[in-house]
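tool=predict chain=A
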Amino acid sequence: MDNASASSFQRPIPTGRGNDSHHVFLSFRGPDTRRKFTDHLFHGLANAGTIPISVFKDDKSIPIGEEFASQIFGAISRSKISIPIISKNYATSKWCLWELVRMMDRRKSTSHIVLPIFYEVKPSDVRYLKGEFGDAYHLSKKDYGEKDIREFEQALRDVSYLQVWDSEKIADRREGELVQKVVDIVLGELRNYFQLDVTEEVVGIDDQVKKIKNWADSPATHARMIGIYGMGGLGKTTLAKAIYNELSKDFVDCSYIPDIRDTVHHNGIHFVQNQLIKDILPNEREVSNVDRGINLIKSRFQCKKVLILLDDIDVGAKGGKQLQALARERDWFMAGSIIIVTTRYQDVLDQSKFTVDYKYPMNTLDEVHSVLLFNKHAFRMSCSLRYFEETSREIITTMGGLPLALVVVGSYLFGKKILKYG
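tool=predict ok
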């Protein structure tokens, strides 16, 4: 970036600099776009939703030198996405061009994503160095070395062929519309980095996820709740996380609160409320008690379409208070919101003031799925070794179709010698 700017690593919550990792690197020609389009894009990304997009943008002057170069190039290397905002005078800055070379090199050698924006210039003018863009470049070219010129021009050609945003093709050149298009694409690219971890060895949940996803896709005039219940070890959390991952593609504001029963026992309900509030409203102050948490959630979440997973809600007096304090009624949330609740006890769902639209009882696995799950962990394959079949079936029968037990025992037996099985 030109005009020697400081490396400022910025995000919706804490800010930092130096060796922080971040998601998006913005490259731009300061005099062209800093105080208009680039600033709008930066804030659009930073406030996009609960996915914590961290953005690197040059903002404050520091001396150009080794520290400057290491900060800038390090920022590109540590980012997942680079967005060069190529304007009329972009190629008059040697630093902008060096940044572009580094981005394109990273794109060739890693999974780094480059999403160029052609701001009031045509991609073809960048490719062939013509028009006002080309004129400005050729005036500055005399100050560049031969090696730099070759690398700069190759990078400009390469970037001009990428899938692009051309500001001149946006109706009436509405910058707000262009910013939103960019934000939507960046969110889509980053979704996978924020998916909840679901073990690959899970069996038999694909049909369940598909069934619930089809239901969730139906139009709704109010917020809805999905309740998944059953004894411990059946895979309620695993199923809920898989559903959450599938649905999260359609939401900007998302929150996953794990192990609520245990967290409340150690830290109180208001601690969980603060987790939820921080996810959906990252700039909001913490609440000091449950009543304040309730008032904040029901007043501020009404204007947000949210996806929330509340994992392991308890039963009884404490359990009832847990759900009441986090999602007591439909009208706390905007229409289209989905709240997923997992619990060991059906009573939690039956007694909820927020009518549960979809109740899903988790049962033990049938014999076929029990065998598949055990074999995947004990033998790392879908079938057992021939001389272990009888022993395997005895173990599987003993586990009673409980997924957690099948996984634990199967994993323990993996790699053990034949005599230990016998």
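The chain is about 50% helix and 15% strand. The chain has three domains: 5-192, 196-361, 367-421.
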